[in-house]
Amino acid sequence: MLTVHLLGGVGRLSSKIFSTLILSLLVVTACSNNDNPIITPSPTTDAPASATGLVIEPGNLTVEVGKTVKVSALLNQNGDIKRDLPTQWSSLSPEILTIDNNGMITALKPGNAQIKAESLGRESLALVTVSPASVTSGAATTPATDTSATTILGDTAAASPELAKLRTIIIRPENEATQPTLFKFSRLQEQRQFVAAGKDSEGQDISNLTFSWSSSDESIAKVNSTGVVEAVATGTTNLIASAGNVTSNIIQIQVQEGTIRAHIKFTE
């Protein structure tokens, strides 16, 4: 509160000056009691755009021993597709296959292996199956050419217009809006429905697709044709879905019997 003392003997204030002083004091007092001055900037509420994430394409790979195939990475942010990214590649099972800095995979021996792409602070995994060398393929060291991959895409396009447009597949637990990288089951025989969504190069959903579901170790968790996953034994396995020659993101399934509840870890 502001207090004004008028000293006697100095002079008298005219009624006009006194009224002006009182009015000024009222304005100052009102401003000092304002909890939200209009000059205070309002906090920003704009949330960052959600990102679909880093995607490896093609996702569904089967390579014969001794052959090579090239993969690439793209970043899908709400339909904004960025290609030709600076990408660091690695093989999680180098005894089965190797991958160089250009994304060229070389198959060494039969088995399943994951490859990892890292770019712009994000990472993505894809499952690669290495099959035995074909008896009719000639020398086992003959590398595969890009022409074979083009032929596969052409056959897919002829079979289904929807598959011709398909570029990425996203899987997640039903009723979860975010794409997880890890899902944990708390008890054996527990079941959970997973769903898949196919998207084109612009990030738009594609309807009328049929997905094939698979678990890398069905002795740990098995999945049926509709995406229902059931915990079988304690351990870890990978869940994927595919359509045509496109494979989804990988969700690691962990079965931990005796834990209190299931946990989900989400990507950014």
From TrEMBL:
Q: Write down the Gene3D superfamilies for this protein, in alphabetical order.
A: 2.60.40.1080
Pfam families this protein is in? Big_2 (PF02368)
Q: What SUPFAM superfamilies does the entry give?
A: Invasin/intimin cell-adhesion fragments
Q: Which InterPro entries match?
A: Big_2, Invasin/intimin_cell_adhesion
Organism for this UniProt entry: bacterium (Candidatus Blackallbacteria) CG17_big_fil_post_rev_8_21_14_2_50_48_46
**Name of the protein described by the UniProt record:** BIG2 domain-containing protein
Q: Which residues form the BIG2 domain?
A: 50-129, 176-253
